[in-house]
Amino acid sequence: MSVSAQELNKKIHDQIKNKDILINTCTREGITSFPEFKEMYDPIYEAYTPDAATLIEIKKLLKKEKITIVFGSWCGDSKVNVPNFFKILDAAGFSDKNVNIIAVDGNKKAENGLLDKLNILRVPTFIISDKKGNEIGRIIEGPKNTLEADLLAILKQKTS
After folding, report:
1. What strands lie across the sheet with 135-140, from one edge to the other?
2. Rounded distance, CA 6 to CA 20, Å?
3. Cα–Cα dist 93/131, whole Å
């Protein structure tokens, strides 16, 4: 089943979290308008200031990569790190068309085989792939340093 045939920004009631959540492929507009996610997204996005020097380096290296964001609309780490990651991508001038967003349920699963071969254990997981789709690296749950420093370290791997 192709992505276009799937319902974007699908909402279900998650029995594990006992709340409505997003599941499967989402758009940025879909996640930022989902009430529970939006209430934290907007203020966190506005408040985050990525490191300027690191951003300059990211802009030089972040070109044709593909980024997959696997998150939980119910997850505290996702509510903090997804807005901050988008702030970095926006500041770097990276196009949303190269970002694939997948929402998972309380078991960290999605439907239709969307997560097959991705080995998702924690959310959010930010997977950076080259233009051919080969994974370069990932940031899992939270950054080791900062999101932008970790992203830059991943991007530098592809050039070494």
Report:
1. 10-14, 19-26, 99-103, 66-71, 125-129, 135-140
2. 19
3. 17
Residue found under tokens 């932008």:
148
Q: Roughly what angle, to the nearest 10 degrees, separates helices 35-47 and 76-91?
A: 50
Nearest CA among 47, 94, 39 for reference residue 69: 94
For 111-143, write each residue's pLDDT tens digit: 999 999 999 999 999 999 998 999 999 999 999
For tokens 């694939």, what's the residue? Answer: 100
What is the pTM assigned to this prediction? 0.94
Q: Which of 5-19, 53-67, 83-97 comes out lowest in average pLDDT?
A: 5-19
- CATH value of 9-159 in 3.40.30.10, 1.10.3720.10, 3.20.20.140, 3.10.290.10: 3.40.30.10
